[in-house]
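Human: We require from you a protein record containing the residue sequence and its fold in C-alpha cell form, and nothing else.

Assistant:
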Amino acid sequence: MDEQAFKETVAGNIAAYRKALSLTQLELAEKLNYSDKAVSKWERAEALPDTFVLKQIAQLFGIGLDDLTRNHGNKKIRRPHKFFQKKIIIPMLSVGLVWLIATNVFAILLMVGVQRAWLAFYCAIPATLVVCLVFSALWWTPLLSALCISGIIWTVAGLLYLCVPVNYNYMFFIIAVPLQVLEILWTIFKNPLKKIKSPPKLPPPSSEN
C-alpha cells in the first residue's frame, strides 16, 4: 500500500466511524481541539493526522489503532461495542453510584431522626446532572451539556430555597434567571446555529519565466 492509498484508507475509516457514532465533523473537531476544516481534510485524504492524533481518534471511537488504519473492504462499519460501553454503561454506573450514596445518606439521616431526610434524594438530582455534564463534555452533544447546566442552575436554586432559612428565599430563583440567560448566550456563542463559511481561496497566480 502506497502513501496515497494509506491516506485514503484512513480517510474513509475516520468518516465511516464518525458517521456510525452520529458525530458531525465539527463535534469530532471540538473533541480533538482541531478545526472542522482539519477533519474535512483528513476525510478527503488531503492530509493525514499524526500518530498521536490517530491514537486519540481511535480511543474516542472506542476502537484499536489497527481498525482505523486497515482496509475493511466492503464490510459495513458499525457502532463499536466498546464505544457503547463507554458512552452508555459507564455513565449509568456513575449515576447509579450517586443514587446509592443518596440512599445510604437518607437511611442514616432517618435513623438519627432528621426530619427532612428526603432532601438527600433531592441533592442527588444536581449531583446526577453534574455527572451527566462531565460525560456530555467527553462524548455527548453540546446541546445536552447546555441542558445539564440549566438543570444544575434550577435544581441548586430549589435546594437553596428549601434549605436556607431566610425570609426572601424565593430570591434564589430570581438569581437563577440571569444565570440561565448567560448560559443560553454562552451556548449560542460557543455553538452558533449556522456556521459562516469563508469563500474559497483562489490559487496564487503562476509566475511566468
